[in-house]
């Protein structure tokens, strides 16, 4: 009996199935790694004790909440009690209780059978610390089903919503390592982009790169403080107790730098001039807020604290509006700004809504700020690179325009001199010759037919000469009706042949002058470079040879022999006849 053929799915489908299976296993392990929790909280009252708080929990007199979701704990003047009740199945093992995102204030874990432990982001004495969260290590001897009592100490900052997670030690270490890799990578991207921008600011002397670097560095500092990265693992001890002041200053400075960066990067002066002054005023206002916050004067500090949030809200809307207007009016780089800024702005709005109790299931928003910062840094870096390339292209175009004669499009005298000096600095033994060309009776053409006809003649002559010369030959307008050509690799014979050919070509243009001089011609002086020649001496000798050609009747080329200076040993050839001279 013949077995039916088994059709195997395509390779890509088999790999997709394996990937989905691995992802399912990973998610399954992740979901079951944490112990389910029930939670309750209430404000700390006068005369409260841990025992009284636990009694109220057992009596059901606390506010219930889901610890897996973000919960904002309104903190009174004395703080808040939180009780976490582990749910079955219970596993008696070494566990870790983590609080995410980490609150900036101090949190205390009470234990009747063991020591009371207090943790804070800027606490450098704790033996075990979470990265990106607060983490309490619970030993094996602690009963797995026993409720956990926490006290959130009052903080000067607005209480951000937090979630709680209870998991095994091995599971916690894996999750902690993944977060550490993620945070390190994103902060490294931001710092790398900022340092690169600082280098370009110095090299290009463009303050736009400096404002960008300041903005990215401040944002990286904000994220480092909010996630606790600057405390653990970086252990920047000098920030201990200064998180509120430094964080507020970093927020204000980031907006100031972003405003100054945007003014130049999006070219508001050109594309949105009416919005330039408000954006500049925002930058100045943010700097003033920083000075108030750091003044050590209570009244000024309070005013600065009151102004931060309104200015942040107003500033975000203003920068968004200015970038949209500039982009719609033709600013290429405003689109880069929008691409990098808009996701961060949306994320900030979602985080603000979360602080007010919305989106409790999106706990990842806090870490998304790191990813959004790295994304914005990369996008704006691409924009800056594009800007640098455009500046370079514009400079090259300006240089070309500055080097070219506007009428004939040949190199002008300055540019030709620079290029000729560079060509003569080549130590190779190849011969070099210089042709000095002067149009015959050009002044008469200008006087009889007008300057417009003279300009047309110069353009036609320049075009004809370029067609006869090689691309490597250095051709320029020396002044008026004079042109110069540096021939690389051409000795006496080759230079005279080229000069004679040029005389013939100009003669064939048949540019009329007047009755006495039927058409425009050219006289050419040829000089071969000596070992000790400079560009000035070479031009002087070719110029003298050109005058010899004029004296000999014009419309011809004259060679100044490099080994003789007397006029008797200079060879003059008429147009239409290749010169026959002895070496």
From TrEMBL:
Residues 1-33 form the signal peptide. It catalyses: 2 GTP = 3',3'-c-di-GMP + 2 diphosphate. CDD domains: GGDEF (cd01949). It comes from the Bacteria. Residues 560-583 are annotated as: Disordered. InterPro entries: 7TMR_DISM_rcpt_extracell_dom1, Diguanylate_Cyclase, GGDEF_dom, Nucleotide_cyclase, Rev_trsase/Diguanyl_cyclase. PROSITE patterns: GGDEF (PS50887). Keywords: Membrane, Signal, Transmembrane, Transmembrane helix. SMART domains: GGDEF. Gene3D superfamilies: 3.30.70.270. Residues 430-562 form the GGDEF domain. The chain crosses the membrane at residues 179-204, 211-231, 237-262, 274-291, 311-328, 335-355, 361-385. It is an enzyme of class 2 (transferase). NCBIfam families: GGDEF. This is diguanylate cyclase.
């Amino acid at each position: 009996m013949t077995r039916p053929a088994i059709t195997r799915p395509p390779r890509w489908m088999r790999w997709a199935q394996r990937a989905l299976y691995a992802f399912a296993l990973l998610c399954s392990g992740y979901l079951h790694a944490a112990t389910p929790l029930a939670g309750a909280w209430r404000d700390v009252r006068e005369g409260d004790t841990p025992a009284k708080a636990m009694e109220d929990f057992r009596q059901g007199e606390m506010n219930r909440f889901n610890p897996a979701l973000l919960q904002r704990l309104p903190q009174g003047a004395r703080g808040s009690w939180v009780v976490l009740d582990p749910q079955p199945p219970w596993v008696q093992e070494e566990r870790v209780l983590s609080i995410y995102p980490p609150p900036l204030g101090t949190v205390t874990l009470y234990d009747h059978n063991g020591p009371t432990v207090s943790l804070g982001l800027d606490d450098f004495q704790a033996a075990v610390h979470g990265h990106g969260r607060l983490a309490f290590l619970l030993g094996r001897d602690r009963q797995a089903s026993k409720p956990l009592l926490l006290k959130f100490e009052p903080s000067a900052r607005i209480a951000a919503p937090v979630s709680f997670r209870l998991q095994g030690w091995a599971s916690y270490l894996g999750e902690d390592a993944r977060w550490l890799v993620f945070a390190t990578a994103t902060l490294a991207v931001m710092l790398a982009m900022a340092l690169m921008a600082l280098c370009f600011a110095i090299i290009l002397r463009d303050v736009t790169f400096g404002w960008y670097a300041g903005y990215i560095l401040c944002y990286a500092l904000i994220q480092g403080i909010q996630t606790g990265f600057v405390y653990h693992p970086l252990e920047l001890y000098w920030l201990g107790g200064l998180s509120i002041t430094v964080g507020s200053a970093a927020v204000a400075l980031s907006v100031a730098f972003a405003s100054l960066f945007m003014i130049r990067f999006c070219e508001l002066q050109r594309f949105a001039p009416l919005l330039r002054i408000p954006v500049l005023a925002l930058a100045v206002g943010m700097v003033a807020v920083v000075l108030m916050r750091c003044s050590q004067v209570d009244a000024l500090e309070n005013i600065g604290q009151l102004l931060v949030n309104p200015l942040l809200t107003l500033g975000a809307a203003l920068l968004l509006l200015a970038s949209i207007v500039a982009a719609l009016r033709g600013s290429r780089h405003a689109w880069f700004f929008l691409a990098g800024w808009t996701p961060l702005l949306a994320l900030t709005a979602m985080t603000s809504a979360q602080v007010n109790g919305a989106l409790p299931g999106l706990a990842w928003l806090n870490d998304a700020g790191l990813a959004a910062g790295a994304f914005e840094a990369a996008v704006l870096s691409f924009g800056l690179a594009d800007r640098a390339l455009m500046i370079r292209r514009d400079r090259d175009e300006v240089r070309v325009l500055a080097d070219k004669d506007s009428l004939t499009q040949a190199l002008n005298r300055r540019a030709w001199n620079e290029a000729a000096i560079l060509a003569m600095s080549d130590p190779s033994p190849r011969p070099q010759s210089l042709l000095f060309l002067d149009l015959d009776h050009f002044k008469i053409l200008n006087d009889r037919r007008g300057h417009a006809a003279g300009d047309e003649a110069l353009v036609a002559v320049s075009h004809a000469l370029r067609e006869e010369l090689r691309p490597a030959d250095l051709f320029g307008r020396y002044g008026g009706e004079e042109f110069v050509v540096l021939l690389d690799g051409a000795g006496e014979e080759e230079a005279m042949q080229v000069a004679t050919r040029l005389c013939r070509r100009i003669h064939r243009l048949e540019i009329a002058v007047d009755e006495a001089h039927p058409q425009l011609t050219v006289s050419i002086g040829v000089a071969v470079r000596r070992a000790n020649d400079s560009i000035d001496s070479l031009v002087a000798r070719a110029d003298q040879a050109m005058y010899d050609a004029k004296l000999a009747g014009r419309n011809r080329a004259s060679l100044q022999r490099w080994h003789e200076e007397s006029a008797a040993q200079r060879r003059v050839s008429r147009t239409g006849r290749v010169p026959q001279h002895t070496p």
